[in-house]
Amino acid sequence: MESYTPIYKIVKQEDFLYNGEHKPLNCSHSIHDFIRPIFKDTLEVKEVLYCIALKNLTPVGINKVSEGCINATLCDHRLLFKFALDCLATGIILVHNHPSGRINPSDADKKLCKQLREGCNTLKIDLIDFTIITKKEFLSFRDEGLID
Question: Checking CA distances to 35, which of 6, 14, 93, 114 falls within 20 to 30 Å?
């Protein structure tokens, strides 16, 4: 059985979460501040999709769901939801990058978000946000009204 790295190990090894404090990810800016260091130098290299598992908006786990090529990545919905269920998550945040630097969501981004929102609804897991990040900026589907 596959195991996941608890968020506290990531924090300890890489000093991600604000010096190890588990602060809630309650707005798009806090999500951006949390995830940007995790992408490190891959923002302009290839698309990567991360899932952040939350309990009451506090991160309890993070998983690299997929790593693709320069303009696409695939998402296995079953593995993403397995991770969320293994973490006993009450909510998830999905973040992926656009190496091209174009911040606008593609039709494929919108379709994936819709499919994952439907899966979340079935499992009673809140889809908190679906975020796109580039080297210079980020876009929150929630802020843009693309998810409710």
Answer: 114
pLDDT of residue 61: 87
Is residue 69 within 8 A of residue 94, CB to CB? The reply is: no
Domain CATH for 108: 3.40.140.10
> 33: domain range?
7-140
Asked, for residue 147, whether it belongs to a domain, the answer is: no
- Is 127 a domain residue? yes
**In angstroms, rounded to a whole number, what is the distance separating the alpha carbons of residues 118 and 136?**
31
Six token digits for residue 113: 């978000």
Task: Give the integer Cα–Cα distance in Å for 78 and 31.
Answer: 24
Rounded to an integer, what distance in angstroms lies between the CA atom of residue 82 and that of residue 44? 28
Taking only the tens place, the pLDDT of each residue in 35-78 is 999 888 888 899 999 999 999 999 988 999 999 998 889 999 99
pTM: 0.85
